Amino acid sequence: MFRLLANLGIRIRRNEAGSLSVEFALLAPAFLILLFGIIESGLMLFNSIIMEGAAQEAARQVRTGVVQSSGDPETTFKTLLCDNLFSIVSCASLTYVVETYPSFTSSNMTSMFDANGNIRAASYADTEPGDVVVVRVAMNWTFITPLISYAYGTDRMQLISTVVFRNEPFNPAGI
C-alpha cells in the first residue's frame, strides 16, 4: 500500500500537463492590468499633447492679433482651440482662461480647479498690443483601469497646458 501511494505521488509530480495553463492563470491578470495601464497612460499623454498643441496654436493667434481683430474674440479663440483638437479631445471637457498682466513678474495664476477637483468656468480677458498674456487650457482625465487610479492615488488626473507670451504690436480692433 505504501509503495502504491509513493508511485502515485511520483507520477503526479512528473505529470506537467496543464502547468502552462495554471501559470498563465496566475500571471495573466497582472500582465493585463499592466498592459491596460500602459495603454491608458499613453492615451492620457496623447490627449495632453493634443491639448498642448491646440493651446499653443490658439495662443499664437492671440499673440498676433488675429483673435482681437474679429468681432467676438472669445468665440474666435474657443473656435480656434476646438478646431485644433481635431475631434480627438472633446471641446466640452475643456476649460480655458486667458488673462493679461502688465509684466511677466506680476502674473499670478489661480487654480484651474476648485477644491473638489472640478474644472472652473472658462474666461477670456481682452488683450492689447504689448500685453503679457497667460493662456491656460485644462481638462480632467478619468482613469478607467482601477489599479492605475490606485497607483496615482486618485481616479482623475488634471491635465493643464500653459502658454505665456507678450503680444506683438498689432492694430487693435476698431482702429
Give the strand order, joined by hyphens, for the main sheet.
Answer: 2-1-3-4
Category by helix and strand content:
alpha+beta
Q: What sort of overall outline do the alpha carbons produce when their principal axes are compared?
A: rod-shaped
Number of DSSP E strands = 4
* Helical residues, percent: 40-55%
| SSE pattern, N- to C-terminal | HHHEEEHE
Oligomer: single chain
Ends distance: 108 Å
Strand content of the residues, in percent? Answer: 15-25%
Count up the helices: 4
Query: Mind summarizing the main beta sheet?
Result: 4 strands, mixed
Annotate the secondary structure layout.
Elements: H1 2-14, H2 19-63, H3 73-83, E1 94-101, E2 123-124, E3 132-142, H4 146-152, E4 156-166
Parallel strand pairs: 1-2
Antiparallel strand pairs: 1-3, 3-4
Question: How would you explain this protein's 3D organization?
Answer:
This protein has one domain (2-166). The protein has helices at 2-14, 19-63, 73-83, 146-152, and strands spanning 94-101, 123-124, 132-142, 156-166. The protein contains 4 helices and 4 strands. The mean pLDDT is 88. The longest helix has 45 residues, at 19-63. The chain is rod-shaped and about 100 Å long. The chain is α+β, with helices and mostly antiparallel strands.
Task: Summarize it.
It is built from four helices and four strands, in the order H-H-H-E-E-E-H-E. It is of the alpha+beta class and 175 residues long.
